Amino acid sequence: MFIxxxxxxxxxxxELQLLWTQGVQVTNVSKPxxxxxxxxxxxxxxxxxxxxxxxxxxxISSSCIV
Length: 66
Hints:
It is a single chain. This protein is α+β, with helices and mostly antiparallel strands. The protein has one domain (2-58). The two termini are 30 Å apart. It has a two-stranded antiparallel sheet with strand order 1-2. The model has no long low-confidence stretch (mean pLDDT 75). The protein has helices spanning 2-21, 51-58; strands at residues 24-27, 37-40. It has two helices and two strands.
Protein backbone atom coordinates (compact mmCIF):
# COMPACT_ATOMS: atom_id res chain seq x y z
CA MET A 1 0.00 0.00 0.00
CA PHE A 2 2.92 2.35 0.75
CA ILE A 3 4.26 1.86 -2.80
CA UNK A 4 0.87 2.92 -4.19
CA UNK A 5 1.04 6.21 -2.26
CA UNK A 6 4.58 6.86 -3.50
CA UNK A 7 3.38 6.27 -7.07
CA UNK A 8 0.40 8.61 -6.65
CA UNK A 9 2.54 11.32 -5.06
CA UNK A 10 5.12 11.00 -7.82
CA UNK A 11 2.42 11.60 -10.44
CA UNK A 12 1.27 14.68 -8.53
CA UNK A 13 4.84 15.99 -8.27
CA UNK A 14 5.39 15.46 -12.00
CA GLU A 15 2.22 17.36 -12.89
CA LEU A 16 3.07 20.24 -10.53
CA GLN A 17 6.54 20.49 -12.06
CA LEU A 18 4.99 20.62 -15.53
CA LEU A 19 2.59 23.37 -14.44
CA TRP A 20 5.43 25.38 -12.91
CA THR A 21 8.06 25.02 -15.63
CA GLN A 22 6.14 24.85 -18.91
CA GLY A 23 2.59 25.77 -17.99
CA VAL A 24 -0.56 24.58 -19.72
CA GLN A 25 -2.12 26.25 -22.73
CA VAL A 26 -5.79 27.14 -22.19
CA THR A 27 -8.37 29.21 -24.08
CA ASN A 28 -9.40 32.55 -22.60
CA VAL A 29 -13.18 32.46 -23.03
CA SER A 30 -13.73 35.75 -21.22
CA LYS A 31 -13.10 37.56 -24.52
CA PRO A 32 -15.40 35.75 -26.99
CA UNK A 33 -14.40 37.39 -30.28
CA UNK A 34 -10.73 36.49 -29.93
CA UNK A 35 -10.65 33.44 -27.60
CA UNK A 36 -6.94 33.93 -27.10
CA UNK A 37 -4.73 31.07 -25.99
CA UNK A 38 -2.89 31.80 -22.74
CA UNK A 39 -0.33 29.81 -20.77
CA UNK A 40 -1.26 29.11 -17.15
CA UNK A 41 1.42 28.35 -14.56
CA UNK A 42 0.67 27.07 -11.08
CA UNK A 43 2.43 26.35 -7.82
CA UNK A 44 1.44 24.48 -4.66
CA UNK A 45 1.56 27.00 -1.80
CA UNK A 46 0.12 25.13 1.16
CA UNK A 47 -0.65 21.62 2.22
CA UNK A 48 -2.79 20.43 5.09
CA UNK A 49 -1.57 17.51 7.14
CA UNK A 50 -3.87 15.04 8.79
CA UNK A 51 -1.47 13.13 11.01
CA UNK A 52 -4.15 10.80 12.35
CA UNK A 53 -5.21 10.01 8.79
CA UNK A 54 -1.56 9.50 7.87
CA UNK A 55 -1.28 6.87 10.57
CA UNK A 56 -4.38 5.08 9.33
CA UNK A 57 -3.32 5.14 5.67
CA UNK A 58 0.29 4.10 6.25
CA UNK A 59 -0.40 1.61 9.07
CA ILE A 60 2.16 3.44 11.21
CA SER A 61 1.37 4.92 14.60
CA SER A 62 1.31 8.71 14.34
CA SER A 63 0.28 9.45 17.90
CA CYS A 64 2.70 11.04 20.32
CA ILE A 65 2.64 10.42 24.06
CA VAL A 66 4.24 13.23 26.06
